[in-house]
Each structure stands twice: as C-alpha cells, then as structure tokens.
Amino acid sequence: MTSYQGLNLPDLMELLQGPVTPAPIPLIPATVGWVVLGLWLVAVVGLVAIAWVRRYRRNAYRRQALAMLKELAKRAEDNPAGVAEAISTIVKSAALQAYPRTRVAALTGSDWAVFLRDTSNRDPLVSAAAGQLARAAYQPNSEPLQLLEPALRWVKVHRA
C-alpha cells in the first residue's frame, strides 16, 4: 500500500512540489565580443551623429539663402522692383560663405557666370541662366521670376 491511498485530489495537489524556476538571465553579455561589438556600434553611431551635425551647421548659409529667396518669390508677385538685384545679392552672399573670399569677391560679369556654372556641376537650369544671374545686379529690368528658380537651384546644388 502506498502513502497516497485514501487522499482526495486537493490533498494530492498539496503534496506536489512547485515548478523549478530557472536562474534569471543576466543582462550583461556573457562574452567580451558582445561588449566590443556594442562599444563599436556606439562609436559608429556617435561618429555618424557628429558628421551629421557638422554638415547641418556647415549648410546653415544654404538654408538661410533658400529662405530669403522664397521670401523674395512672394514679394516678386506683388512688387517685382528690386527683386532681381536682391536675388543676385543673395546668391553672391551664399557664394562668399561657401568659397574663399579671394576666389569669389572680385568675380563679375562673365567670370561670375562661369563660376556659377562650374560650381553647380554644370546643372542645366543654372547653366542656362548663369549669364542672366551675373547681369541681374546691373540690369534692374531683369525678369525676377526667371531668375528665381535658377538661383534656388544653384543654392541647393553647388558644391562647396
């Protein structure tokens, strides 16, 4: 005869032992390789973040020039007087911030147009309007709406 005879189900259940729980899984990696990989990933993410911040700061003049040109576009619809000159000034200012002053400051006329073409990677829109952009500061009768899109394009695509 066994010691379990005569016991009802609740009594038998009380005799059962509870399940054995495993040891908790540690959150620290078990090998050095995972630590090295984790540190490497943190370093790579940090370097990418630093590069992104530097590029963002370096392109602040582009964002400012684009905002000014977009504001001029709104103004040109109502009052186009002086907009062509302002477009030329904004493009020249952006160029002075992107390139050495000795290279940009003295450029006028066809030299300025060649500079705009060369620094825009020969973008077709900028290349077609480079001469007009170069003359805009000196010809107040220039059509500002024709100059606006090439100026925006140059600010976006030029290589500094």
User: H/E order of the elements?
Assistant: HHHHHHHH
Mind summarizing the main beta sheet?
Answer: none
**Binned strand content:** under 5%
Q: Give the C-alpha Rg.
A: 35 Å
Count of runs of 4 or more consecutive helical residues? 8
Helix content: 55-70%
- Mean of residue pLDDT values: 88
Poorly predicted tracts of residues = none
Through-space gap between termini: 95 Å
Description:
With 160 residues, this protein is mostly helical. The chain has eight helices and no strands. Helix 6 runs antiparallel to helix 7 (124-135) and helix 7 (124-135) crosses helix 8. The chain is elongated and about 115 Å long. The mean pLDDT is 88.
List the topology elements:
Layout: H1 9-15, H2 32-58, H3 60-78, H4 83-98, H5 101-104, H6 109-119, H7 124-135, H8 144-157
Helix pairs in contact: 3-4, 3-8, 4-8, 6-7, 7-8
Which structural traits does this protein have?
single chain, mainly alpha, 8 helices
Question: What's a concise summary of this model?
Answer:
This protein has helices at 9-15, 32-58, 60-78, 83-98, 101-104, 109-119, 124-135, 144-157. It has 160 residues and is mostly helical.
